[in-house]
Task: inverse folding
């Protein structure tokens, strides 16, 4: 595959569309050293970005939680995302907006004098989990735990929260798995490295309470689809040993969409009727 820094196309950089290979930052960019960065991952279907405005609103909220006031309005971010799609001739695409503290007068933990920058890129991206999207993903259980909201703003989509995600996914892939499942700091089931998790038992759905994890927009959408069908949804704390009694499992996320899970650690699940129904319903919704 072509490296992500060596492609044709345009990337939106602080208000201008620049050539893909010229969308660069200095080595003393604050975010590179101190993770002062927030981002959004979105998908466009047929030229329309699903829940686009909600993503732009969350980007700004994440920035505020990280003491970064992004100097572009939601309307300006929306205009920029669609300008990127048009400039690259994309209809079905993944869209990545990232805001971060750039290089400036400060080069230490404090960075209040450094500019907040915003880049937006888009590219074609197929199924996040490859053929696991249809067969059921296999997940490892990470040795790392999701942190307490008292240690870091867990409601922000912040780059620093993904450090253990990369480590955990690498460890999982080395074991032949697609991804890893986290427990939270209390020992409850939390989420995968970039997706929320749902379980099915006797026709009812159970999903972790988002009190220490990101309450994903796809997660919220899927809960709505389930409730529209009269299917009970229990948002609650789930102990890992409860996975032995669940019959189905799936992951949700903008990149993951709705991906069935066949195994987590030693626990196995069927790719059942409800999983397929919700996956199809989500696919129909994003393309409606």
Result:
């Amino acid at each position: 595959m072509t490296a992500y820094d060596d492609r044709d196309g345009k990337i939106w950089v602080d208000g201008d569309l620049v050539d893909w290979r010229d969308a660069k930052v200095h080595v003393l960019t604050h975010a590179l050293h101190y993770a002062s960065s927030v981002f959004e991952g979105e998908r466009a279907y047929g030229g329309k970005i699903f829940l686009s405005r909600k993503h732009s609103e969350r980007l700004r909220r994440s920035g505020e939680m990280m003491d970064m006031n992004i100097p572009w309005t939601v309307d300006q971010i929306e205009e920029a995302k669609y300008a990127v799609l048009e400039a690259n001739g994309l209809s079905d695409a993944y869209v990545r907006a990232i805001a971060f503290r750039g290089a400036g007068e400060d080069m230490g933990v404090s960075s209040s004098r450094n500019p907040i920058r915003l880049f937006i890129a888009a590219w074609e991206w197929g199924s996040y989990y490859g053929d696991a999207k249809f067969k059921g993903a296999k997940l490892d259980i990470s040795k790392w735990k999701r942190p307490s909201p008292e240690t870091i703003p867990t409601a922000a989509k912040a780059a620093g929260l993904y450090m253990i995600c990369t480590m955990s996914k690498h460890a999982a892939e080395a074991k032949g798995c697609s991804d890893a499942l986290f427990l939270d700091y209390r020992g409850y089931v939390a989420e995968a490295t970039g997706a929320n998790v749902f379980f099915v038992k006797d026709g009812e759905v159970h999903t972790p309470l988002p009190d220490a994890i990101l309450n994903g927009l796809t997660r919220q959408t899927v809960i709505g689809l389930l409730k529209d069908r009269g299917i009970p949804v229990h948002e609650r704390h789930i102990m890992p040993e409860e996975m032995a009694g669940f019959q189905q499992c799936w992951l949700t996320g903008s990149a993951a969409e709705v991906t069935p899970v066949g195994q987590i650690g030693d626990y196995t699940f069927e790719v059942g009727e409800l999983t397929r129904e919700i996956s199809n319903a989500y696919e129909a919704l994003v393309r409606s």
